[in-house]
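USER: Note each token:
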Amino acid sequence: MTVPRPQLKYQNVEEKMRKLVASLPEGSRLPSERELAAEFGINFLTARRGVMRLVEDGIVWRKVGSGTFVSAKNSGQTSTAAKSTATVRLGMLIPKNSDAYAHRLMQAVVGAASQQNIEISSCWINDYGPSALRQAEFIKKQGCIATMLPWFEPSRSYEVLELAKSASLPVSHPQILYGFDDNNSSIRRSRIVLQSACAYLRYDNTDTLAFLGPDEPENTFLQQRLGAFSLHCASNNIPHIVGLVKEGSVTMNRLAEQWVAHRGNLSILAYDDDYALRFMTAMHRQGLVAPDDFRIIGFNNTESSRLSDPLLTTIAQNFDHIAHQLVDNALNLARGKPVRFGEMEDMPLIIRESCRGRALLAANPDIKFPGLVCCTEDGIPTGNAGALVS
């Protein structure tokens, strides 16, 4: 009897990327080789070998310095295997200004759908009004029973809610998971995570906590985090400040100049990694560096957070969990069933160099942070994991 040969590592990359490409529209940016290497636990040269098989077949193309993209001839196509076995089809709307975080989430959505034998039809949108409505109608005519909008600019939250009301088929989007309902377990868990991040920063004997984020009044995710931060600090008599800045370096540099007065006694919780890294750059111009002069935590564990100097401590998103909920809720909406929020798992706090966390946790091994699992760079828990909180 012939024993089947085990699949090589680069072949695992190739297989997964072929499935992803089959579900994405023309021009979609694929994960970088370093992102793939981190995901599969391999070196980037092995990841590159898997990607190059797709390049050789002409289904993706590479641009030095920019990345790898889906070729034109694959636009709107799906794999033969998917067409022959899929029993359900869902749509996916992709904003043309999607960032790296969005692409990681969309990749997870494709994986979650594939596990349930669901075919994905995706297309670009230019806005959340006429363009999105036209594409939703197009997706419906392709046989999709619902569509998903995995990512959108948080400042456009209210436009997305209107899109969901007006579209010709149900729309599953993150605000269903992280909406305004206080009974939503995902909302409660997000608050717990933020409060635990504040508690983690406070263990460094910091006098003042700060929240740093975008100046976007329409951003519902910002409203939730800022509200939880302010309530936590006020309830515990913690001195705190808030900095909301516009895009670009001008307002960030101005904020850094103001916060220099807190040198040595300031710990910052940033809205995401991008704002954290921009602030670190602005403080460096003032001659200040983390963690000696300030401490800072980001959100999302982006590739940039792993390349910064110093390396950024950050809270990682569970993309697989979010993706499965988006897919499940799309199915529930299409079938007239209640939307399910599910129980959020503890989120990894990746401890790097922008905080003095490793020494503090080593000296206090019994400290627990509900909603967070403190991890080293390689993902190994430190032992300081919080108990589940419902």
Notes: The longest strand covers residues 88-95. Confidence is low (pLDDT under 50) at residues 74-86, 179-183, 384-390. The chain has two domains: 9-177, 185-317+345-385. The longest helix spans residues 185-202.
